[in-house]
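tool_log.txt
---
The assistant was asked to compare two proteins side by side. It first ran the structure predictor on the initial sequence, then on the second. Raw inputs and outputs are pasted verbatim so the downstream comparison step can read them without reformatting.
(1)
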Amino acid sequence: MKIAVIGGQGGTLGDDMVSCVIKDWLTELGVEEIQYSPPFSEDAVKGCDGVVLGGCGIIYDEGVVLDVVGNAQRYHTYILGAKKNGVPAIGLGLGWQGLPLTTGRKLWVETLNCLDLMTVWRGGTKQYLESIGVKTQIIETTDLGFALRQKGSAVECDVALLSHSPRLMAVDCHRPEWEKPLLEKISFSLKAISQNRSVVVVPFVKETSELLKIAVSCQGLLIDGEPQRILGAIRGTRTCVTTTLHALIMAATAGRRVLALYPPSPLKPKIRWMVQELGVRALPFDTSWQRIAEEIEMAENDNPPNIEFQLEQNRVNRKILCSWLEKL
């Protein structure tokens, strides 16, 4: 059996976490050949037995994420191409970030209505998709990232900063006004606590960046690599400071205490929703570095977030995938 997995194009933690989980599940369920993000064309999945549209907050258009143009068109071409070629498709762990453009909404409705069924994040994704005309069966579960499995050994350390992909952070045009001071503030915060604590900085692609400068200034260790090894490494950390949704999910999956930093409203509501879901500490990006440092100290007395519900919901995701494969 040959299955194509269509998801984020890689280079971010969420894309890489979700692709690892789906590949692991498909392998365990006996799929002999897995094709991840095949060359972009209408006939890309021709010859496959099925297509998995995989996870993360991929339901958005260029009106939400300015540096990713044509996101809605990309998935539309893949999935309608699958339908044209008679290839069944399913959606797993999908999340909605926003569709302000009429064209984007139309493309996503057509795309999702070609799926056999889909599972989505809780927190309003199902209700929104149904309100704009999606007729495919929708089952509420959770993000696939909670099912990531660790590899490698833990790195003993007091505080870990899990931040954006350096590839994205290094380009000024990709950084909104409210985000530009973030690294500087985190740098000051880590300096403030690193006098009596060890610090580790975790970016998610192998490129020199401002995060490397922060790590050096704090005499911290810079960890990089595949998501399973990063997950294994941070299990030795007491507290994680996160700036993205999947950094938060990874920290919770590792059983660490968390301080989540989030962008101002109305941007990235998915982070604030997950903060409420997990019951962890959170501060907006525009908080002073002194307050961030104080909150990190207080977080060290918290209990790690309980993710039993999320683990159970991902067992549901896996069972749905298994049942779908059996019907192909």
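(2)
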Amino acid sequence: MRMWSLVFLVLFLVAFGVNGCKNESAPVPPANTPQTPNDEARLFTPTARIRVTNMVIGRGQAHFEGTTEFYNATLQTQLYQDEKPLDWWPAKQDIKANGHLWEITVTLAEELPVESYYILKIWDKDDPSLYGVFGFDLKGPPSVSELQ
């Protein structure tokens, strides 16, 4: 379980510590393309400055807000559970940014298990190679006994 936490921490640091710098060395697969295991690292490497700034999950809904460097961009999203895309997520739903701000609220088709980890991928509809990622879990902070 600690391994997944470490992987999740690394993904978080890459998503926010590097500020989504574009990776010119590796080709970026189009959004929603089935990936082979060797492509997983590229699938979740941010290439553009599209960020999540707020997230609320509860009462049967998931709400995400964020920013994009692309003025009035049209974005799309996909939610992944344990690196697998959730089929019921409205990946084809257009999200029209209001200036540089965007938000999406989705009614959850099923309860999200606490023991899983999640990644929201956000991309520019016109250029799917420009995207950002946001990793999270629903466990909350570790208890004191878990830290010892």
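---
observation on (2): DSSP finds three helices and eight strands in the chain. Confidence is low (pLDDT under 50) at residues 18-30, 33-44.
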